[in-house]
Every structure is written in structure tokens, then in C-alpha cells.
Amino acid sequence: MEELDKTHKGFINKQIKQTLKDTKIPTLPMVARKLVNLCMDDMASFADFAEIIRLDPGLGIQFLRIANSAFYGQLEPVSTIQKCIQILGLKYVKSIALGFHLASTLNKYSGKNPNTELFWHQSVLRGVIARQMAQHYIPNRSEEAFLIGLLLDCGIILLAKSLGDSYIQIWMDSLDSPHRLFKTEQLSFDYDHIQASAIVMEQWFLPAILAQPIQLHHTRTIPASTTSEIKQLAQIAYFTGNLSLFKSDSITEDIMDLQTYGQSIFGFDQQQLTDILDESQKEFSSISQLFRNILPETMDTEELLMQAKNILSDLTIEAHQKVSDLETEVVRLHNSCQTLTGSLEMVLEEVETDNLTGLVRRGFLERFLETACEWIQKRQMDLTVFFLDIDNFKTINSQYGHKTGDLALQILAETLKNCFPPKSCLSRYGGDEMVAAVCNIGLKESLSQAERLLQTIRKLAIPIEVIGRKEDIAITCSIGMLFCASGSKPGCAGQILELADHQMYQVKNKEKNSYSYQILSAQPVATSSHISMNN
């Protein structure tokens, strides 16, 4: 059934790609194309924009209305374009004009209906919020931030057009959580609105400073190769694009992450974020007339922003509670670790040890590993198991006698005690096999430890007497190492020992005197394992 689902999703994904490929996305009108070039030209002048106004005089009228709105508080009416641009700023006028034409072009493609009106209400609002945030974070790119916020979800228009009611319902069900919409798209179709938006960006030849942040607006950690300005705009896009602008009775976990993100990336506290939303509401009111052909006739913007404010306010309380809970959990874990350590010390004193080597016997090792499995799965520790076997041990016994073999075992046991931390569980597993179980040393140190152990064992000298003459012989070991990351699922003690033993035999069957290792990765990443030989 699972394979059938994958095949079905793959078929749908192929259909979507072909449908979007065949989609006739409307070309930008000449005015919009000129505005794209104008917005990307930092040297553009008022005269250049005057030419745009000549081609679309209706724009001039709308900008006069914006300049005369209460948001700008002019004492005298603004009656000329020149004065209007002086008040609004040329870059602001260019970006708002371009945003209007881009949105209008997409709106003609999708058709006017209540769903698209709600979509554009949220999109224009996101554009304004992005602009307000950029004024504090990257002021010289605040107008690009507006365009990015406006077009963040333009791929939704394409998917709704291509998939119809089935997709629209998914979008409507996820209005309170943009992140959930993104994940639902991927689970349902193996395709998402970011991939769809890439088609719009490409066909409209929008520059990288706009296209790349839009492509990254559901990526929390921006790739290191991203240029500084694009990275900053992408961070604004992530925050703005994941902010809930729809009334909901619940706060999802992904939304709860936003305030922490805002504080760590932008340095905004809860009051600053609230102030930004207040300013956004005022600015939205001033420019809504320009976008009136795509916006609902009645809009309760205050209600949408109130949801965002409430979330951010609730998050402050929840964040403090989480810190308090985390501190309590740290104390609990510390006490538990001390208890486990104390228990281990007590048992080590009481448990019957191997008479020859002084190491714990197999039964205690297995009980220790059973307890460790529980802690690993609860993400409270990682564990490394080293499974050692002396190479050619039968030959040592037959050629030099069992007394020499016993001495080799004793010297190897002392070596393990000196090489591993005091709290490690060191066991004689049986015959010439020994096991070291070590907690919380990490993968990198585990690999270094395996290499150091090999080097130390190679230098060991086992004294023998041959025909009255004293000599030393050397020994080597084959080592199998298993690293269980915190949060992985190693199963039980038997499975851990079986996996480590298997790695040891990988070495035995090839060249001996080396080590092989396997890694059990943490969930939710699928448990991954690989074998690597190291001489």
C-alpha cells in the first residue's frame, strides 16, 4: 500500500509539473516591465518615473491619494506628482507601483473571487509588514522587502489554478499556519508553492534580490553561500511568510518559534514587534486604495493583525515558561545522572568480576546496556561501544602456552582501564573478547579513541620465556565500534552487542589490526548506518 501511495503521489507530481509547464502565465504589461528595470536601477531619477506616469496616468492619481492619506499627516493638500514623490520617496513610489502591476497581472490570471481577495489581503499586508521590518533591519532594501512580502505566496495562485478545488480547500484549511500549508503540499503532492513561484520569477525575469528570498521563505537556516543582503531579506521573508494572519483558536508549534526567531535574528523584543505591526496597519490603510481592484470591499485588517499580536504576546509568556521548564528539566537530568553514576559505582563494587582480568562479566554489561538504551531513546545521552578481539589468540595459546595467553588478557584489560574514562563499563565478554561501553564522548572523540586504542595495543609487550631466554611478543586487536546518537533507537542490549560484534568481524575477515564502525543516527532522520575501515 505504501509503494502504491508513492506511485500515486509521483504520478500527481508529474501531472502538476506538466500542468505548470503548460500554464500560460500572463506576460507583464509594458508599464510593469519598465518598472522592473526602474526598480533595479539605483540611478533612476524622477524624470524616468515621470515617463511611467505618462504611460499610466491612473497611477499618478492613486499616489496623490496615498500622499494625502492620514498616514503622512500633511497639513496642506498634495496636488502635484513632484510633491508626492518628495513626500513618499522615489524608491517607495517605484516599488508600490511595481507591486500594484505585478499583483494585478496575477489577479487577472486567477480571476476575482472571495478566495483571491482574501489571498491578496494577506499578501499586501505581508508586503507592508516586510517593509516595516526592513526599515529597522536593512533600511536600504526596504522597498525590495515590500515586493518580496507581496509575492511570497504567488505560487499559491498557480497551484490553485492548476489543481482547482482540492488545492483551494487545503489552502483554506491552513490559513492559520503557513508552515502547515507548505508541509501539507509536500505530503499531498510532492510539490509546493515555492516551486510554483519559481516559474513566475523565471517568466517575469525578476532579479535575484527578489526571487531568492521568495524561494527561501520557508527555510529557517539560510545557506552560508547566500550573499549578505539576500540573506537578510530571506530572514525577513521567513518571519513574514510564516506569521499567522488569520484568526485561530490555537497556536501551533511552528508559529511559537517565530518570536524566538525574531529576537535572535533581528534583535526585536515583543514590544518592538507589536509596534511594527501597528505601523503596518496604518501604512496598509494608506495604500489599500491603490490595490482596491484586488482587495475585498470590506477588510478587517485590525483583526488579522490582532491575531499576530496575540500570538506574539502569548509567546512571551510561553517562552518564559519554557525557560523555567527547561531549567527544571536540566536539574532533574543532572540529579538522574548523579544517581545513575552512583548506582554504577555501587554495583561495580558488589558485582562479581572476572577473576582473571578484573573486568565486569557479561551479565552486568548487558544490564548496563539495557539501561543505556532507555536513556538514548529519551535523548538523554549518546553511547559508544567498542568490541575488541585479540588477533590470532589461539596461536598465542598453542605456541606460548595458556599462561602467556592469560597474561595477554590481563595486560589488555589494564590497557582498557587506562584508555577509557573511569565511569566506562569495561567487560570481559568471553574468551579473548572484551567490550568497552562509554557514555557521552561524541562521535568525533569515539573515532579518535578507536585509533588511539589501536596504536596503544600495537605497542604492548607480552613477556615470554623461550628455552631459558626472555623475550617480548606483540599483540594486535580487531575492533568493532558502534556509535548510538542521542535520540536513536538501538533496540536492546543484545542488538547493540550484535551490531558491534558484526563490525569487529568485518575487520577480522579482511585484514585484522584495524577497526570498523557503524553509526545509529537520531530520529526523526531515518536511522542511517555505514561501515568505514580505518587502518
Per DSSP, what share of the residues sits in E-state strands of 2 or more residues? 5-15%
Question: From N to C, what is the helix and strand string?
Answer: HHHHHHHHHHHHHHHHHHEHHEEHEEEHEE
The count of β-strands is 8
> What is the third-level CATH name, the topology of the largest domain?
Hypothetical protein af1432
What structural class do you assign from the helix and strand content?
alpha+beta
Unreliable stretches? 1-9, 315-320, 525-535
Largest sheet: 6 strands, mixed
Going across the biggest sheet, name each strand in turn.
2-3-1-6-7-8
Mean pLDDT metric: 78
What's the tally of helices? 22
Number of domains: 2
Please estimate the helix content: 55-70%
What is the terminal-to-terminal distance? 45 Å
Question: What Rg is obtained from the alpha carbons, in whole angstroms?
Answer: 33 Å
Give the overall silhouette.
Answer: elongated
CATH class of the largest domain: Mainly Alpha
The CATH architecture assignment of the largest domain turns out to be: Orthogonal Bundle
